[in-house]
Amino acid sequence: MRADSAGAYPLCVIAFEGARKRYIDDAGANHVALDGLDLTVASGETLALIGPSGSGKTTALRLVNRMLELDGGAVRIDGEDVRTLDPIALRRRVGYVVQRGGLLPHLTARENVGLLGEVEGHAPDVLAARVDELLSMVRLDPGQHGKRYPAQLSGGQRQRVGVARALYLEPQLVLLDEPFGALDPITRRELQEELGALLEPATALLVTHDLREAFRMADRTALLRAGELLEVGSQAELEASPDPWVQRFLEAQRG
Ligand SMILES: Nc1ncnc2c1ncn2[C@@H]1O[C@H](COP(=O)(O)OP(=O)(O)OP(=O)(O)O)[C@@H](O)[C@H]1O
Ligand SMILES: [Mg+2]
After folding, report:
1. What is the pLDDT of residues 68-99, one digit of tens each?
2. CB 222 within 8 A of CB 56
3. Where are the domains of the chain?
4. Ligand 1 centroid from CA 30, angstroms
């Protein structure tokens, strides 16, 4: 899903350069969540991040929009170190679909989706039309579901509101953390297609636990294990990997 090579969209390259993140637990012990990640996502590319639970996928995403700060190395957007960018401006530019929805509980679905429109001061009719469009895109009824609070929605519906919210400002860069984890296979398939088309011009990092989803939606897939990048490439390249752990991972996903 590459952007128009004629340059219709601004460049948007994400580069992890030896990116390191460690957490210190309550007992004071160090835990390395990301151990020197080197990975570049090309402009207009969708790159999937896959790997076992705890392998550092969410950590990698949150370093891009500075929800987390690095302990070493760098993350650059178009060559600029994210640490030099204003975090608020950065988060306006980068759409983020939070794992498990991350909605504000005291706002309705409509208000959650339109949050950035409010911040930007969009006219009420413009905002309402955009919210309707986005809710319909994620197969929710703007009238019915739009009025509900997150606690009144199912897990899959909340996830879809989270996807709609992240796309409000048509971001050039989108981080998606298991956007369809709670969805049934039919809705999931529909949204994969819909979202794939919407992401076409953007640069996207998509975290998923589903290898078929990765191969369907992404140009390349990166496989993480315990904070390390084991392999990155197309489906054919991953399938040809000589690494026995990569082969076991692919085999387990097929089973
Ligand atoms: N705030 C934190 N404090 C301490 N350790 C953390 C914290 N956040 C994450 N970790 C640890 O860092 C590692 C990577 O976590 P991360 O959330 O990036 O994993 P993940 O690949 O997204 O997993 P999942 O597929 O379960 O969402 C895990 O071992 C996790 O326990
Ligand atoms: Mg995660």
Report:
1. 999 999 999 999 999 999 998 888 889 999 98
2. no
3. 14-254
4. 13
